[in-house]
């Protein structure tokens, strides 16, 4: 395709899209007797599992839905400024990241700092929440087909999403299969550990609806999850309609081999997307240990308190400068720009971030000499 002239390329592309639109699968709504899945479900989408709302306890729905609504009414869900194809754009959905204390999740050049529900609470409440979460995760674990590993995944973060389509003026049309308006465009979930499943709880809320009766109206268009094989617009795409309270799972390597998108329905909707984020360079513990490494090269005179570098070896100085940059660009700037907005709901990160800034300032004095002219460096060494 790349070698075709533009006009011809555009036309052939349109034709293909129209053809694909005809064959793209639309899975019928979940009813009492579930319809047989389309043949492509098994052959091309075997990692996708739907767990209908009715298979989860009503009490669990009540708690999760109340929690999501509270987060929204308290203003905890915010649109992220992310980078897409060299452009800074706001996400259509409003988001918040919850997760294990000190964890972050990086996507589209933005680092999200996990709010932790365990903050400043009494021990007992913490314990209860932990147990509740474990119970929830157990109940939310996908049904396991025979022969599959039964160990439940240890999700470390959940990205919450909310969107009220009535409040969004411009939503992009799904470009390949004519599936309709997208709340989230085609993507893979980034920065997950290999084979990480993604478990999603979907909840459409009454926000924005005058009459609750309209809720069940047949006219109301449903939210759907779109799936397609990555880099392939010939295999039919799949649009999975969701009812409020349904869960779906992307298992095995489905998130890698396929892309997914979220197709907006008429009403407002929340989703809670549970993931096992790859956090080897994404925890507070990690970046603190990097700071300790860099600051090991800083000597302090016990009498005067004056700072000096222990080693001036180029490799050591370069290592220190790398860490200085990492703290500044991956953590401090990301926090001031993105994470700090959540401080009024969760102050977990405030203290650690002040300490990281203090370390960064010390490193600033250490890497300063790198930017000096050679004679200035010599002066500094001779002053030692
Ligand atoms: O809302 C959903 O069902 C999925 C959202 C999603 O794909 C994401 O947050 O990465
Ligand atoms: Fe996603």
TrEMBL record:
GO terms for cellular component: cytoplasm; nuclear speck. The keyword RNA-binding does not apply. One of its GO terms (molecular function) is broad specificity oxidative DNA demethylase activity. Its main location: cytoplasm. Its cofactor is Fe(2+). GO terms for biological process: DNA alkylation repair; regulation of multicellular organism growth; RNA repair. Residues 37-279 form the Alpha-ketoglutarate-dependent dioxygenase FTO catalytic domain. Residues 116-150 are annotated as: Disordered. It holds the Pfam family FTO_NTD. Coiled coil: none annotated. SMART domains: FTO_NTD (SM01223). It comes from the Eukaryota. It is an enzyme of class 1 (oxidoreductase). Residues 119-138 have a biased composition (Acidic residues). Keywords: Cytoplasm, Dioxygenase, Iron, Metal-binding, Nucleus, Oxidoreductase. The keyword Iron applies. It catalyses: a 5'-end (N(7)-methyl 5'-triphosphoguanosine)-(N(6),2'-O-dimethyladenosine) in mRNA + 2-oxoglutarate + O2 = a 5'-end (N(7)-methyl 5'-triphosphoguanosine)-(2'-O-methyladenosine) in mRNA + formaldehyde + succinate + CO2; N(6)-methyladenosine in U6 snRNA + 2-oxoglutarate + O2 = adenosine in U6 snRNA + formaldehyde + succinate + CO2; an N(1)-methyladenosine in tRNA + 2-oxoglutarate + O2 = an adenosine in tRNA + formaldehyde + succinate + CO2; a 5'-end (N(7)-methyl 5'-triphosphoguanosine)-(N(6),2'-O-dimethyladenosine) in U6 snRNA + 2-oxoglutarate + O2 = a 5'-end (N(7)-methyl 5'-triphosphoguanosine)-(2'-O-methyladenosine) in U6 snRNA + formaldehyde + succinate + CO2. Belongs to the fto family. Monomer. May also exist as homodimer. This is Alpha-ketoglutarate-dependent dioxygenase FTO.
